[in-house]
Specification:
single chain, about 45% helix, globular
């Protein structure tokens, strides 16, 4: 392998490394163009662990291709208590490690506040969020529940759920995200062309020794421009997150190939305030919204064994799940999705006698628990579905 080929391989490896996101267990990767069908990925079972797993992004940084990390709330709250635990998990993927604490909202509860990407109760760290903005939003909500009179807390929680699934607000936010990310996306494409098209062709035609300085200056100019437009776009969408903006700008300037994917970092957490179903409906991706709704409702109605969740958190988690079901059904009904499709038994072979109501795996035995969903009992298949 020549020096030029080795250099190109190093650039390619650094570039591909920035096309991988680490997804928490309760998060989804949503990708799609402005028009067209959006898709989602959840954590895989390979190369992951209990807290999360890697997810591969599209390799080409196409303009107008939006990529978001989205998730429902990964905590649980009710009028009387809050818990840093959650029963939610997508499809057959494992539930994240349940290490959180549960706090009763009494008069002696310490104030709730955010500190960076963490939520603190008094001086103790209670939960870690994805970004400082996310932590601030969750802390503000929990503080509002805490400070409200007991008879008013149900209204505060209802308002929070309505904002979480507000499709119109999600649509407005998506428009802001697309506009802010467009310039970094365009310059990212130009840098990719410079690194992986212009540079190899020039080096093969004139030799690496003759072209390395001008090509280096060309790529460096692309990197500097990308760092500038990244800072502007990030400031528009995340004005409060100065520390992350500065640290990622430094990464861009030090690791040149990553500058081509700067737009991904701008978009990733820009819609953290919204439920994945609200985002799917905001993009007019009805099939995606229906699929997400079906999976969520199956999981919320048939959660895997709750023995992982501390006993003092289960009442809070179950109350939170009932609220989750109520508002998911409301938004699905309002947007003319089928709120009962999740109940339909899957079609299968004649020998299949039962299925898992959570993951829809089918079994030739008539009873027992699902092998992929601990604690979920099989449901007998009705006549005519095999």
């Amino acid at each position: 392998m020549s020096e030029g080929q080795s250099l190109l391989a190093i650039l390619a490896l650094l570039y591909v490394s920035d096309c991988i996101w680490w997804l928490p267990r309760q998060a989804l990767l949503l990708t799609g163009m402005r028009t067209g069908r959006w898709r989602f990925k959840s954590c895989g079972t390979m190369l992951g662990r209990q807290q999360g797993a890697p997810a591969m992004l599209p390799l080409l940084p196409l303009p107008r291709l939006t990529m978001l990390q989205a998730q429902p709330w990964d905590i649980a709250f009710s009028a009387s208590s809050i818990s840093a635990n959650s029963s939610l998990s997508w499809n057959t993927q494992g539930r994240r490690a349940q290490k959180g604490t549960t706090v009763n909202l009494g008069d002696d509860t310490a104030p709730i506040r955010s500190a960076g990407d963490t939520i603190k109760i008094g001086d103790s760290t209670w939960h870690t969020c994805t970004t400082p903005a996310h932590a601030d939003a969750v802390a503000t909500l929990l503080s509002a529940i805490q400070s409200a009179a007991p008879q008013e807390r149900a209204d505060v929680i209802a308002s929070a759920w309505k904002a979480h699934i507000d499709v119109d607000a999600a649509r407005t936010r998506l428009t802001e995200v697309r506009r802010a990310a467009l310039t970094p996306q365009i310059f990212g494409v130009l840098q990719c062309v410079a690194m992986f098209v212009v540079a190899p062709l020039a080096a093969s035609r004139f030799g690496i020794a003759f072209t390395i300085i001008p090509l280096g200056l060309l790529i460096l100019s692309c990197v500097v421009i990308n760092a500038i437009v990244y800072g502007i776009a990030h400031r528009r969408l995340h004005p409060e997150d100065k520390s992350h903006r500065r640290s990622h700008t430094a990464v861009i300037l030090l690791s040149w190939p990553m500058a081509a994917r700067a737009a991904d970092n701008v978009m990733r957490h820009a819609c953290h305030a919204f439920h994945p179903i609200a985002i799917a409906l905001a993009t007019e991706s009805r099939d995606l919204a229906q699929s997400l709704g079906d999976q969520l409702l199956r999981d919320l109605h048939h959660p895997t064994a709750m023995n992982e969740i501390p006993e003092d958190a289960r009442d809070t988690v179950e109350t939170h799940n009932r609220n989750h079901v109520t508002y998911i059904l409301a938004v699905m009904t309002a947007h003319k999705l089928d709120p009962d499709r999740w109940k339909v038994a899957p079609e299968g072979a004649a020998e299949d006698l039962a299925y898992c109501p959570r993951c829809l795996s089918q079994y030739t035995r008539p009873s027992g628990d699902c092998s992929d969903c601990p604690g979920v009992a099989l449901t007998s298949k009705p006549t005519g579905t095999a």
